[in-house]
Write a structure and sequence with these properties.
The protein has 459 residues and is of the alpha+beta class. It folds into two domains: 197 residues, no CATH class; 180 residues, no CATH class. The chain has 14 helices and 14 strands. The strands form three sheets. It has a seven-stranded mixed β-barrel. Helix 10 crosses helix 12 and helix 13 packs antiparallel against helix 14.
Length: 459
């Protein structure tokens, strides 16, 4: 098999831690807008940002990006990708070159496993051994304020763990179609110094530009991977929230909104938890989040609480505070392992033991799965338990989801269009690189994904 395969042990243990419509090789481009270069940082929700970034994340077009690096700079990052150090290079897109930009490899343990020469998979090290690694391009290099179609950064995900090459794009699309602000994701061809590297998932960066695009007031605080309340239902300290802040870091920030939200959750009772949630959150939005997440089994997301002894935590999400409305929003992140565990627990580490709203072991950590790893029931979390109490809303939203964005007709049409869009690019990579996924393996993985979707729809 041409595709280098992860060993089962490495693959499962790493999670415990943490159109074209023509026949040519060129994508169809119709009247592309010029690249916008802004000299000052935009504030508020400027509409030109929407228009610019929408072109980059156009679902109808397979864009091609080219990164150009001096040979010594490429050798530097190839020698130690896990260092995630930027080097200077340029980005070429549709005849326009933006220079200089910062370029680096990106990812956690999962992004590098079996792709670096180091022998300790848990501590990635050594030189690059795979053709594709996830990459980040920093447009605002060295503090510049120029933007590329309204974007400060580009994230190109290798999809090395997803033979279907569809999970990330489809997962985020389903969230957005159900009214949940989520990153936009499309496929893209990538060339490095003129050599075709392969097909990547171009996925939107969650940052201040993302919040300005998605919310009426996008100037608020964005936090990564800190739940509003601890396992015991109590708030964190101000410092702990601010330590996870991803926007407004240099503006004497305050975490008063998320901390007050947490205090209200902490003091709530079964009798008033719904009113507390309704006063802070868009109920339709968060119930839609839960419906999509549980239907497509994003089992490595915020509803999987991994435990080490008595301490349990979740990951792969952001929280946004909308200051004018005084509201909190949960944002999904990392779709690599979505859809895997729908029919059966194909991944021995990520599966969540409980159905939506169920609890196990009297809300104490328990062992589960092939490796008997510890987890904690999400419904034991006071906030999640509050969402679970909206049972009628959940069932109504689930019906809307299955009859709408998740319907067989809609998803089949979508996947067929994306499959046609990336087929030539997948074949091109197969012919160019010995470690690229073969077309036959890709087609088999697509069939497997469609079977998972069918089962979820019928059950």
């Amino acid at each position: 098999m041409k595709m280098m395969r992860l060993s089962l042990m490495l693959y499962v243990l790493l999670f415990a831690f943490s159109c074209k419509s023509n026949d040519s090789d060129e994508p169809v481009i119709i009247n592309p807008p010029e690249i916008e270069i802004e000299s000052t940082e935009p504030t508020g929700n400027e509409q030109y940002l929407n228009l610019d970034s929408d072109y980059i994340f156009d679902q109808e077009t397979l864009h091609t990006f080219e990164l150009n690096l001096p040979l010594e700079a490429l050798a530097e990052i190839d020698a130690d990708p896990a260092a995630e150090q930027y080097v200077e290079g340029s980005l070429t897109f549709e005849g326009e070159t933006i220079s200089p930009v910062g370029i680096r490899y990106k990812g956690s343990v999962g992004a590098f496993v079996n792709c670096l020469s180091g022998l300790d998979w848990a501590n990635p090290s050594g030189h690059k051994t795979c053709t594709k690694l996830s990459m980040k391009v920093k447009i605002n290099w060295e503090g510049r304020e120029e933007k590329f179609y309204g974007l400060k950064k580009l994230q190109l995900h290798s999809q090395n763990l997803d033979a279907s090459q569809m999970r990330e794009r489809l997962g985020y699309w389903l969230f957005r179609e159900m009214g949940v602000p989520a990153p936009r994701s499309v496929h893209a061809r990538l060339l490095i110094n003129g050599e075709y590297s392969g097909i990547y998932a171009l996925t939107e960066q969650i940052d201040g530009r993302f919040t300005r695009y998605n919310y009426d007031d996008g100037t608020g605080n964005l936090y990564k991977e800190i739940w509003p309340v601890k396992m015991n239902g109590q708030p964190y300290s101000e410092f702990e929230y601010l330590n996870r802040l991803k926007t407004n870091e240099d503006e004497n920030p305050s975490a008063i909104l998320i901390r007050t939200f947490a205090q209200d959750i902490a003091s709530s009772t079964t009798g008033n938890i719904q009113s507390v949630i309704s006063s802070w959150m868009d109920v339709d939005e968060i119930i839609s989040y839960a419906v999509v997440d549980r239907t497509i089994r994003v089992d490595d997301g915020p509803f999987h609480w991994y435990c080490g002894g008595s301490n349990c935590s979740n990951h792969n999400y952001y929280w946004y505070e909308e200051p004018t409305a005084g509201s909190l929003h949960l944002i999904p992140w990392d779709m690599d392992n979505a859809f895997e565990n729908i029919i059966s627990n194909a991944n021995p580490v990520t599966p969540i033991a409980d159905g939506w709203g169920e609890t196990t072991n009297n809300c104490q950590p328990f062992n589960y799965g092939f490796f008997q790893l510890q987890q904690w029931s999400a419904a034991c979390d006071k906030l999640t338990a509050g969402w679970v109490s909206f049972s009628d809303e959940y069932e109504q939203t689930l019906t809307q989801f299955k009859e709408g964005p998740f319907s067989e007709a809609q998803v089949t049409m979508l996947l067929n269009a994306w499959e046609a869009q990336v087929r030539d690019a997948t074949l091109e990579a197969d012919q160019a690189h010995v470690d690229a996924i073969s077309v036959a393996e890709w087609e088999g993985a697509l069939s497997g994904l469609k079977a998972q979707l069918k089962w979820a729809r019928e059950h």
